[in-house]
């Protein structure tokens, strides 16, 4: 649990930290789209430079981003190897049965690698610089137009806020119950697969029971404080769109223009 | 059979931005068959310290020995052997660990994990259920149907069922009513006196420290700031105040009497002691007045 950096928030007060979470979310998704515009080394260079600029602006050490890539490294390498050995075209360097090592294959491999790393870097940047609650608020605000087609936006966003709020609590609870059961002789990390699956029962049942109890308590507490659903509720946490948010959008727009221009 | 910590430290999440030192170079010894209380503020490292006692956590530097098991930063889980069985650990709000279909099965869970047969384990469970005063009628019921206090008893019985030699209690009476609290503490006292268990109790209740413990450790910000007896600890109210700790009610009352001119040799810890001291004085006074 300690290793996974994606989804963690690091406190800070950099330019990126202060951007409107809505802007950050839009940009993050937009970035994932424009990554697919790249098709030669100039375009990848441009996007890498953009990503690096964002990383520097966030004042977060580069090593954290690299740690964010690590859990997914096997998936990335697997995809890269597939690309390298199964793409044909250009000069053939090596051949063995269906496996070929070609100029295009190598190039494709490098591109796929860059694509993965760039996307992970950007999404890590979003979660590292934005508190989970701000992400939930931004989602609600961005989904607001969906109210027109009767999507229960308020309920979804409330669910999201509560879910995010309880992630750390449930993690603590899990550790606590694991410790308690370990003290009673359960071994979570050894034995055959069947044995390990059985060992999860003393963890999962108490966890479900406590989550359900907690939900009931929370619902009662919310009602006691006058909660009656989304109708007529005001907002305490406000998100203010500032000039720098517009500037960031325009900057990404320019990057897109650059990409289209450099692409072949 | 004693417990010894030698310059033991524990740091959480070493090598990350969230690195945090929870226990700093703590050394002390807990004698066999003693009743040790560990007090200190929330976040002073008490719970972290406790989790070392059955190998849930390993020190990041220094070492500890328990019953001849030595735990160093390099110790592997497999080398711990029977340590978990020898050290019974009652966590805060232990009722959160219940999961079996019936109370009896839940109590029998630990002995079964440590190699007892089904029949033996159930026999032990029955015996321990009686020990914690669970009514016969609830034994075949689901633990989730019980009241909070009864669930707590089931959980504690589940730990006692391992027949530990050392019993670690992390605030065992938190959230119980006064009667439940008294009964629970008396149970631990009885286990300590009759079965010779070494008990380590973490608590915020100074009354319990005064009434039951014979050894106190005080933690502050991950460091051990006192290793003494309750008598000694509570004889210095100003030191306690400086470290944001309180006196037991009786001692506090005696202290206030002392400031109004009644002198004590040492401040009494229990109501009994205080009464024994005051009764002759009152008698004397009665004679003078009469």
UniProtKB/TrEMBL annotation, chain A:
Example GO molecular function: transmembrane transporter activity
UniProt topology in membrane: Multi-pass membrane protein
Any single GO CC term annotated in Swiss-Prot or TrEMBL for this entry: plasma membrane
Location, primary (coarse class): membrane
UniProt keywords, alphabetically: Cell membrane, Membrane, Transmembrane, Transmembrane helix, Transport
Pfam family, one: CbiQ
Compartment(s) where it occurs, according to its Swiss-Prot or TrEMBL record: Cell membrane
DNA repair keyword on record: no
Sequence intervals crossing the membrane: 72-94, 106-128, 243-262
Subunit and partners: Forms a stable energy-coupling factor (ECF) transporter complex composed of 2 membrane-embedded substrate-binding proteins (S component), 2 ATP-binding proteins (A component) and 2 transmembrane proteins (T component).
Family designation: Belongs to the energy-coupling factor EcfT family.
Functional note: Transmembrane (T) component of an energy-coupling factor (ECF) ABC-transporter complex. Unlike classic ABC transporters this ECF transporter provides the energy necessary to transport a number of different substrates.
Protein name listed in UniProt: Energy-coupling factor transporter transmembrane protein EcfT
Organism: Ligilactobacillus apodemi DSM 16634 = JCM 16172
């Amino acid at each position: 649990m300690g290793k996974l950096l994606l989804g963690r928030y690091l406190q800070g007060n950099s330019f990126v930290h202060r951007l409107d979470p809505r802007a950050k979310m839009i940009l993050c998704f937009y970035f994932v789209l424009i990554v697919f515009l790249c098709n030669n080394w100039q375009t990848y260079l441009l996007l890498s430079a953009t990503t690096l600029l964002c990383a520097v602006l966030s004042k977060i050490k580069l090593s954290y981003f690299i740690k964010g890539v690590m859990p997914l490294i096997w998936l990335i390498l697997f995809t890269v190897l597939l690309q390298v050995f199964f793409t044909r075209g250009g000069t053939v360097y090596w051949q063995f049965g269906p496996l070929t090592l070609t100029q295009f294959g190598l190039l494709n491999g490098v591109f796929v690698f860059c694509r993965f790393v760039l996307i992970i870097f950007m999404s890590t940047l979003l979660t590292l610089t934005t508190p989970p609650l701000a992400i939930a608020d931004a989602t609600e605000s961005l989904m607001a137009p969906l109210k027109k087609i009767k999507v229960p936006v308020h309920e979804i966003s409330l669910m999201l806020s509560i879910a995010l709020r309880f992630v750390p609590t449930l993690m603590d609870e899990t550790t606590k119950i694991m410790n308690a059961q370990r003290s009673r002789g359960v071994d979570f990390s050894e034995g055959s697969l069947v044995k390990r699956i059985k060992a999860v029962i003393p963890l999962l049942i108490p966890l479900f029971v406590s989550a359900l109890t907690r939900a009931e308590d929370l619902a009662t507490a919310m009602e006691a404080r006058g909660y009656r659903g989304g109708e007529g509720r005001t907002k305490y946490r406000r998100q203010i769109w500032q000039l720098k948010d517009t500037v960031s959008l325009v900057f990404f727009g320019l990057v897109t223009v650059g990409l289209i221009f450099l692409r072949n | 059979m004693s417990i010894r910590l030698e310059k033991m430290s524990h740091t959480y999440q070493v090598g990350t931005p969230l690195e945090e030192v929870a226990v700093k170079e703590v050394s002390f010894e807990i004698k066999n068959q003693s009743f040790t209380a560990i007090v200190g503020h929330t976040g002073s490292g008490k719970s972290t310290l406790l989790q070392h006692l059955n190998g849930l956590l390993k020190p990041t530097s220094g070492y500890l020995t328990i019953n001849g098991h030595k735990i160093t930063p390099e110790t592997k889980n497999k080398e711990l052997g029977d340590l978990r069985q020898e050290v019974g650990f009652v966590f805060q709000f232990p009722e959160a660990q219940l999961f079996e279909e019936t109370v009896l099965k839940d109590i029998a869970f630990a002995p079964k994990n440590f190699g007892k047969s089904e029949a033996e384990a159930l026999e032990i469970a029955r015996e321990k259920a009686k020990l914690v005063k669970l009514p016969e009628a609830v034994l075949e019921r689901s633990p989730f149907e019980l009241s909070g206090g009864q669930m707590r008893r089931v959980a504690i019985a589940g730990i006692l069922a391992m027949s530990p030699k050392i019993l670690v209690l992390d605030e065992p009476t938190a959230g119980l009513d006064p009667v439940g609290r008294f009964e629970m503490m008396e149970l631990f006292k009885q286990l300590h006196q009759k079965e010779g268990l070494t008990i380590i109790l973490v608590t915020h209740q100074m009354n319990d420290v005064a009434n039951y413990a014979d050894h106190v450790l005080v933690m502050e910000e991950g460091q051990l700031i006192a290793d003494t007896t309750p008598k000694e600890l509570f004889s210095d109210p100003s030191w306690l105040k400086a470290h944001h700790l309180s006196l037991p009610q009786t001692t506090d009352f005696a202290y206030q009497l002392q400031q109004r001119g009644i002198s004590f040799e040492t401040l009494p810890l229990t109501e009994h002691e205080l009464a024994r001291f005051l009764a002759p004085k009152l008698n004397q006074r009665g004679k003078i007045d009469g």
